[in-house]
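User: For my dataset I need records formatted as: sequence, then structure tokens, nothing else. Please produce one.
Assistant:
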Amino acid sequence: MRSRTPLALALVLASPLAAASAHAGDTAMTAVPAGAAHAPAGPPVPLCVQPDAEVLPLVGEVRDGPATVRAGDGPSGFTVRVHNTGRVTCHRVHPVVLLLDEDRALAPSQLRLDFHDGRRWLPVRLRHTSRNENVGVLDGGQSFRGFTVRPGGRKDVRLRLAVREDARPNRVAVQAALVQHHDRDGHWAGHSDTYTFALRGADGTRPARWRDLLVGVPAFPSTGSTRTTP
């Protein structure tokens, strides 16, 4: 049940629709231009997802984020906790972050996303998909080889997100696909739950509507839960 695709295409795996297809063994995806990811070449590492595996080994949880983000304010912190439930160490793991807003109005130019590689903050290049999602792979350029998560271990990946002051009040969901870089390809290794927050306007205005953000959009397969902040 291994899903295999060039790492530059791993961005689209963050889409819940593509995720459901990939989990079922379907390879239908929307192409992303080459160069979207720049994970450096390195010595071969073992796959942490075996071809006959029925369960993906990595389980993610988006946590420690705010209930509300205000446009124009400084960055807000989030954490993606990655738990390796398998028996093999997962090397070169690159989370792919999906930001899905209720009004499908946010553009990459209005968002600033960074992640911490353990030494420093690095920017994440966000791309806008045909489904009006904003997705970015935590590749870190040529100097970053991804995260390592040992069997039974957990890795906290710190994120910070800032929204430009011209963004309208909205509601935003955050998810993460967990992809292992192997032999110049990206291999689907797991996914996170869903974390939602309210985006206030620069003047403090709350979102006008509070409907179900994820209606009609399948969650990542087998997550079992969708978390919403108060």
